[in-house]
Target: Carbon-monoxide dehydrogenase medium subunit
Amino acid sequence: MYAFDIERPSTIADAVKALKEEDAQALGGGQTLIPTLKQRLAMPSALVSLTGIGEMKGVCLADDGAVCIGGATNHATVAKEAAAHYPGLAGLAANIGDPAVRNRGTIGGSLANNDPSACYPAAALGSGATIITNAREIAADDYFQGMFETALEEGEVITEVRFPVPQKSHYQKFVQPASRFALVGVFVAKFADGVRVAVTGASENGVFRWHEAEAALSADFSAAALDGLTVSADEMIADLHGSPEYRAHLIKVMTGRAVTAAA
Model:
């Protein structure tokens, strides 16, 4: 690990100011960044810790019923405090990594990193969430732009994520045992105006919506509605854990399980 300074701002304004320094890097829970630094794959001049900013922590309900989660809120807190309002999201958070990861990792850090196998991107995209930064609001459909790529600009910080609450939802994850990441994960959310299905862990392009399943499930919210559908293996991830064809198969399987559990 290379030498670096560390800043611990107590306000969003101070964090944004600190991030304007050359080669400064935001630090959430550090579950991805710290191992990267240890391997000397990154060399920031300073880390700006966001975990001491009180206004970026906690779970609350907006006037319109949406669940609002501060960007510095850890997974364990989401699992506990969102359970009464959005059980599908809380269940997802409760099964991220292990207890150590859940008590350090943050929702803002996960979404900013946008790992192609992370769980929160599926929840955000499947819910039609809004990612709120210090500068603007970004719809989830516009936020995710590829593997490890997002709409965030240099120095932009995720301060809050706002989740509309569906009538029914569930997340099914086929776990890669060593890492606890999703080999394939599917988040299904049924709203009054239709169903959203978001898939993580499978595609070379990162999290994506399975539109054919959304159309079928909007007409009939049951696993049987998926019977005639297939998922192309094109652009699916190939590694020692599974072939593209295997991941394409798992998408349909996990979607069906999520629908059954939600219904």
Remarks:
- The mean pLDDT is 95.
- Residues 54-163 form a domain with the Uridine Diphospho-n-acetylenolpyruvylglucosamine Reductase; domain 3 fold (CATH 3.30.465.10).
- The first helix runs from residue 12 to 19.
- The radius of gyration is 18 Å.
